[in-house]
Amino acid sequence: MFASSAQFQLPENLQHYRVDACVLNTSLLSVYQAWDSKLQRAVSMHIIRQQPLHPEIPSSPVILGSNDQDILYLQRARQGAALQHAAFIRIHALEEFDHQLILITEAVKGESFASWIQQHAGQRAIALKQVIHLASAIQEAHAAGLVVGDLRSANLLMDNAGVVRVPSLSLVLHQTTTSHRLDLTDDPHDELRHDVLALGLLLFEMMTGQMPDLSRTSLQDAVFPWPEKLPQDLRELIVAMTDLQQEQGLSCQQVAERCRHLLSQDSSSSSAAQLDLRHLQQEFLHQELQRSQRQRLGYWGMIAVLMVLIVGVSGWQLRPYFPQLVKYLTPYSESNEMAQAARNLTEYTYKTDAKLLDVAEAHLKKVLERNPEHAAAAAYMSILYLSKYNAEKRDEIWFQKAKASAQQAMALNAELAMSLVANARILQWHHRLEEALAMIVRARRLDPENLLSWHTNVSILLEMRRFSEAIPLAMQGANQFPLDRYLLDLQAGMYVSQKKYAEAERVLQKSLQRQPDSPLAYSLLAECLTAQERNADALQVIQQGLQVRPNANLYGALANAKFRVGEYADAADAFAQAVSPDKGIAGSYLRWFEYAEALMWVAGREPDAKRAYQRSLELLDIRFNRSPDDETLLSIKSMIMARLNDFSQARVLAKRTMALQSEDPYVHFWLAYTFELLHEREQALAEVKLSKHFGIPMRMLDTHPGLRDLRADSRYAGL
């Protein structure tokens, strides 16, 4: 038995999995946190030793002596890996080792669904939507010939994106949970119905905060003590879902349809109540008008006096309701408010003007005031809050708001494209790129006309350096959205990374034709020209961009141009603008890092440089705490620690970065710089060689002052 990760050694063909910690260890199963070094992602590793095919069948070894069971598990794993619903934890691989089966799945962070229920019990709309979400997932599993088997809340997970997740292991090793198991026949349809029964009990738990006590009576008994908080229509639904005595029980599709019907009734009732109120108000005004006409006075002076009295008295009585009256009398269109908010957020992608976010927020708040359960509005709010977080000083409140809004959107409608876009962006920020990619692909499939889903999809692929997929997708999107220039900018950035400067320049010129005041296009074009040693042209492009629309990217490009030619004081001045609240991004760890590095080479500015490094470290740690295995963050943090004279921590971080075996040339550049600061020349030279191998621009190696002594080493020329 594998008692701990320290004792657990994988064979050579599985050495790309790094086992980090054992989280569960039983006679039948061990579960480990692990790292896939090939695909650079966290995974969960399940070691399956033996498992009964059915509660009544004795356990037998998974591999030894049970070929039929081998085949069954393999078949289920293949079927489970093919499932597309967001609820299912993804199956990555099924391996064999030492007469055991090893199931590799995505690593999902979150809390148990049971804990989540305790915080959200009794919320009818959310409970019904969660049932719809799970019912559609179970329906897909049933269509594939799989049974979930154990749908207890303690075995489900609410992930950090607000999505209820079903463990893949239960699909492969399913057996009906004994907590609410009834006698089953050999008819496989009974097991399918048992999933519906378990879902009914989950609905009961979501509404009441606890499971029903079935020790003395069943839900179908007339004397069952139903909690008062559970309304009659939900009681009837739960009874129908949990009644296995009926010849034809409810299917998952029927459960989802009944839940949608109840939700639509709730929405209609709310609307009808408002309409009834308005009708009564109109009827009252009409009756008052008729009465006043019947009692028409003959003297205009008396009429005037009475009108003053009426208005005065009415105003006094209605004063507490003035804000509501103004709101409802103001012309309102939900579709117009949503469309305007979407336009503002899309425009913000092109022009990072905080006023656009404020205007979008006002439109979305109008929608949410009238309908707090508007999933699309919640999703757009998440994107808005995340934009504010990125634009300002990385105030954690904005990120938590973004995350909460994304979770709310998923809880309200997990099949809405915008809900998926919002959550994909949260996952991307957590650097959970595989999960983010799967979610955004679904979003784009659901709504191919959603431009933000295209932006997010390409940016995730770019961050994963999967350029062969990202560039064609960006080209397709640029053709589909002829007014958009952001996809062109992303495409050009990838060309620059691949040293395809002619292609990058062509695409950027097209971007500037679509939108002449595009700061990102100007900064990328300047980088492209600089790479071709066209420094004068690059500086001209930067100055032109600064005249059109100053922003952090352009000040950063100007600073880098000055830094490369040794004008460090001018570079520091430009970087100071890039981190200023007015003209740059005060919350960017990278901009503060670049600013600090420029200050280090200006006479008398070393104390300022140390403060800038410290600020960069504070901002970097916000991301590092969420993505501790991010190779870029690790490499830059190791160098910052060396600059702050914490050499032991710098060395530890550098070693961790090396273990990831990155193929990013800039990661190896910062490692080389770190080892040079640590006076470990041999290792610095080795990292320079790797940086060259993976394509670092030679001008960076040849001009950076931090490697001046290293370049003087006779061994440098031979690398």
TrEMBL record:
Pfam families from the UniProt entry: TPR_19 (PF14559)
Xref: SUPFAM superfamilies: Protein kinase-like (PK-like) (SSF56112), TPR-like (SSF48452)
Organism superkingdom: Bacteria
Spans traversing the lipid bilayer: 297-318
UniProt entry tagged with the keyword Transmembrane: yes
Keyword terms: Membrane, Transmembrane, Transmembrane helix
Keyword Transmembrane helix: yes
Occurrences of domain Protein kinase (ranges): 17-264
PANTHER family: CELL DIVISION CYCLE 16,23,27 (PTHR12558), CELL DIVISION CYCLE PROTEIN 27 HOMOLOG (PTHR12558:SF13)
Name assigned to this protein: Tetratricopeptide repeat protein
